[in-house]
Structure formats: structure tokens, C-alpha cells
Amino acid sequence: MKTAVNDMLGCEFPILAFSHCRDVVAAVSRAGGFGVLGAVAHTPEQLEVDLTWIDEQVGDRPYGVDLLLPQKYVGADEGGLDRVRLRELLPPAHQAFVDDILRRYDVPPLPDSERRRGMGLNVSPAGYEPLLDVAFRHPIRLIASALGPPPTDLIDRARGADVKVAALAGTTAHAVRHAEAGADIVVAQGSEAGGHTGEVGTMVLVPEVVDAVAPVPVLAAGGIATGRHVAAAMALGAAGVWTGSVWLTTVEAETDPVVKEKFLAASSSDTVRSRSITGKPARMLRTPWTDEWERSDGPGPLPMPLQPLLVGEALQRINRSAHSPGSGAESLATYFVGQVVGSINAVRPADRVVLDMVDEWIDAIGVLADLAGTPLR
Ligand SMILES: Cc1cc2nc3c(=O)[nH]c(=O)nc-3n(C[C@H](O)[C@H](O)[C@H](O)COP(=O)(O)O)c2cc1C
Question: What residue owns the CA closest to ligand 1's atom 16?
């Protein structure tokens, strides 16, 4: 599995794993893949702890860090607003709607000691620059940006530190913008992906992006969980794959056990693109939580970053009570995941997932070689 990406990133296999969980990141990098730590919700202090731990675990194996750098969000014109200002923008009717959901589903309040008052997403320069400062103090090989083209100062800083820059794109136009901005790698992420996602499917998007940004290497993302998917992505012209959902049910993943069980039981029809967690369309498991936000008599989600501020504590309450008998929290509980959740039916260690992908990839290209009349062995 040798492509331009192996040399660029120093990994054995061009299999990239996005995860918020440092154990998954380290396990994938140790297995020869390339782990990328999602850091948008980290504080600088947490990120320092996690990256120090990863450094100890991976030795000289490479890894990266991912941040959300959106162009459009509430307060973008002012360079981001502080939490107090953002809180003032939360409409009382929205807060009442959230309170009503929690009441109807009997979700108990949090003990005072656990209240975080909303989920912090570090999407403004004031939020993500301290995270970049931490990341660049560690031997990262890649910095990835989602939701917008990588800013010029990030590209300059990465070049100076010999760190590659990847950017996620959901349309060919976005991919071209990322390449023009100077991204070293473009991730073409189809609509079936977990997390923030557009409307074009991986099968259509990847070859279009490959042609549009050549010679910049493209990683295929969205719906990739097996070696057959990897072979298909490479047949479409991708230089490797960028994966997310498949790691959520691994042994190392910190996914809530209730949600993990739901993922293992889910079919590929059980996800929905919903703005109910971050304010931007993101694919997640469909549950009564996502249905509530689709109600025609409801207020609908707020834009980023107001929605995460609005619902952060509610989601914390739901997750905390999802295991308690008598609470409706179990049914509401959801998390980001892609359509490929339907084929994820077993818990495996993360290194096993990498090695299974490689084995299945060899089998898949063997089948294709047989079809061409030139058997591999
Ligand atoms: C739980 C979860 C959270 C995600 N959060 C982010 C994020 O913070 N930043 C990002 O660039 N991509 C994020 N993504 C998208 C992944 O980077 C990746 O593109 C996607 O998972 C690939 O599709 P797949 O889920 O079908 O493998 C997330 C995906 C999942 C499943």
C-alpha cells in the first residue's frame, strides 16, 4: 500500500484514523496507520496532556491533530465572541424548548459539580490559536482543518515546522479552494461520513476531486471501514483513506457504552444529517433527540457556535443518565456516526482494524487482478 501519502506522512499504510480518543490515535499509529486527534473541544491544557501521552506511546511513529476552522460562524466578523456575549444571544424560546425535551423524557439534572454550562467548540482564532501553539510544540506530522480552507498563517507556520496540512472538503469547489490555499493533502469527504458532511456521495466526489486538485494527493473519506472500501477508494484515484466511524466501536474508544451498543445494532439507514448538536449539518445516529429538532412546531437549531452552547449541558445530562432505569435519556442518546455504522457489528482492538483493512485490501485487489487475467499469486 504505497502511495504519495506514505512518504509525505511517514506511515506504513495510508490509512488515516480521525478520533477524539488518544488511545485510538496511538494504537492506529503504532499499527502502521496514521492517527489524527480531534482537538476542537480540548482545552490547551488537555491537549498538552494528550499529546505528551501520545508522544510516549508512539515513539517515532507519526500522528496528527485536527481542528475545525470554519469561515462562517456567529461572531466571525468580530474574530469570535466570548462565551458571555454568545450566551446573551441564546433566545429564551430555544432554552425553553431544550428544557421541555429534558422534562418530557425525564432526564435528571446534573450535580452542580459536573455542570459545564455548554459545550465549548474552539472555532474562532482566539479559541484555536492556543491549541495550535500546543500542537506545534509536539512532533506532529500533520495538521488538518475542517469546515474551511486552511488560513495562510497556518500554512506558513506548518511549512516552517515541516508539518503537512490537510483540509476536508465536501464539494469539488471546496477542494479546489483548499488546494489553492496551499493544502498538502485534500480529504474528499462524502455525504455518508459521520460528523459534518455535505450532500455529495463519496463515489461521486472522490474521482471529481482527484481530477480537480491533481497533483495534490487526495484521501477518500465517508463510508470506509474495510479493505474492500480502501481498494475502491484507490480505484477512484485516492492516495489513501481518512476514516472516522469505524474507530467508535473499537476496544480503545471512549464512546459511551449505551451509544456503542446502539452503533453495533444500527443499520445503514439509521443515521441523519442534523444541526442539533453543532449548528451545522452533521451526520449522527437518528434518535428522538434528532427527531425533536426536526419538529415543524419547534424553533429549529441555532447556528454554530450557539447550538453547542445551548445544548451542551443537555447532552451531558442525557449521557450521564442514559444508563439509569426510568429515565428517557437512553432513547435520546446519540453521537456522530456515518452510514457505514450498518457494517460495524463487532468490537475489535484498533490495531486489529488496521491490519484487517490491509488483509482485506490484499484480497480485494487479488480479486480485481484475477478479473484482469493477471493473478497476484
Ligand atoms: C464522532 C465523529 C466526530 C467527528 N468530528 C470531526 C471533527 O471534529 N473534525 C473533523 O475534521 N472531522 C470530524 N469528523 C469527520 C471525520 O474526520 C471523517 O471525515 C469521517 O468520520 C469519515 O467518514 P466515516 O465516518 O464514514 O469514516 C468526525 C466524525 C465522527 C464519526
Answer: 244
